[in-house]
Amino acid sequence: AALALDNGLARTPPMGWLHWERFLCATDCATDPSRCVSEQLFVEMADVMAAEGWRDAGYEFVCIDDCWMAPTRDEHGRLRADPKRFPSGIRKLADYVHSKGLKLGIYSDVGNKTCAGFPGSYDHYDLDAQTFASWGVDLLKFDGCNSGTLELLAEGYRRMSLALNKTGRSIVYSCEWPFYLRPVQQPNYTEIKQYCNHWRNFFDVYDSWSSIRSILDWTALHQDSIVKIAGPGGWNDPDMALVIGNFGLSWDQAVTQMAMWAIMAAPLFMSNDLRHISPEAKWLLQNKDVIAINQDPLGKQGYQITKDQKFELWERPLSGRAYAVAVLNRQEIGGPQNFTFSVTFLGNGLACNPACSVRQVLPVSRSWGVYSWVSSLSVEVNPTGTVLLKV
């Protein structure tokens, strides 16, 4: 049987924009058309992504999340878009997105209803895959609500993977499989990677520091079981949504999310309003050096190598014998603090042997010069902030 890896997709973590988190399930277009989950929202976001450098920075997917559907399937059993909010239909929307040099993502659910109560794909996997392919869809986010037993959940994720590949269209497959398994059993990541291109491990990201912090804590706690499986074709998704440019994060916390999602080799899907975003948030989200770390072709996920009461030290092996290094200050009180560590910590002692150059990438770009393998680095980091280095 064809498996997810056979389609050659997601050789690096996918990047794009999706409506969930910022726009949730807003369906009242009469009251607030600019924030409603509708054709208009995705057309306008595609326009901005093409015109304002987002596509050129690597953000290629425009993704529809839950709440796009009509409340019932059509007379042939097919899913359909809400006719008032998507009057032209998904095929026309996909054509428009493609005309901008972008790709369209869509959402469905392995169970009989989506998380918001719209029709799910249970017992319709082949039909729904064919429908999405006929519309020109390029990515499917497949949720796990209302799926019944764990056996039905697993069977549904496998069947939709095979159904997508059977269409002959290249469709990135974004799964929530391990997130719904974890309360009951340890996921089999080797099997999941056979079927999915990326898979969500943790709760929905919120526009808050506590949410970002909890995702990082969970990832560090479980890194022994998840880091080794990530690589070209399949990625751990800590919940992909970048909430940078919204309301809940300070500047230092926004820097931390961008730096740490790059270290974790996470899919980068912004959930914000690109029509109204600050120049600072745009600079951070479009930062070529950070994106290059996230998209590094070696495809190794980073991991935490040490922590104390105030600081965490993470590294990610990169191509060309380089390393990305993140120093995170976990304190939420006081001012900037210094963290000093020996470069022998990095790369099992090999990153700086016999010497290395160090460049700071975030929060500002600057060269730190050349260091020998017996050197120490001293890094000043703001509370809840991160300094990202390339060694």
UniProtKB/TrEMBL annotation:
Domain Alpha galactosidase A C-terminal: 299-385
Coiled coil: none
Reactions the enzyme catalyzes: a globoside Gb3Cer (d18:1(4E)) + H2O = a beta-D-Gal-(1->4)-beta-D-Glc-(1<->1)-Cer(d18:1(4E)) + D-galactose; a globoside Gb3Cer + H2O = a beta-D-galactosyl-(1->4)-beta-D-glucosyl-(1<->1)-ceramide + D-galactose; Hydrolysis of terminal, non-reducing alpha-D-galactose residues in alpha-D-galactosides, including galactose oligosaccharides, galactomannans and galactolipids
Gene Ontology cellular-component terms listed: extracellular region; lysosome; membrane
Pfam families on file: Melibiase_2, Melibiase_2_C
Molecular function as annotated in GO: alpha-galactosidase activity
GO biological process: glycoside catabolic process; glycosphingolipid catabolic process; oligosaccharide metabolic process
Domain of life of the source: Eukaryota
Classification via InterPro entries: Aldolase_TIM (IPR013785), GH (IPR017853), Glyco_hydro_27 (IPR002241), Glyco_hydro_27/36_CS (IPR000111), Glyco_hydro_b (IPR013780), Melibiase/NAGA_C (IPR035373)
Keyword Transcription in annotation: no
Keyword NAD on entry: no
Compartmental location: Lysosome
Enzyme nomenclature, EC number: 3.2.1.-
Keyword field: Disulfide bond, Glycoprotein, Glycosidase, Hydrolase, Lipid metabolism, Lysosome, Signal
PROSITE patterns hit by this protein: ALPHA_GALACTOSIDASE
Alphabetized CDD domains for the sequence: GH27
Subunit note: Homodimer.
Function (record text): Catalyzes the hydrolysis of glycosphingolipids and participates in their degradation in the lysosome.
Family of this protein: Belongs to the glycosyl hydrolase 27 family.
Protein name: Alpha-galactosidase
Organism of provenance: Rhynochetos jubatus (kagu)
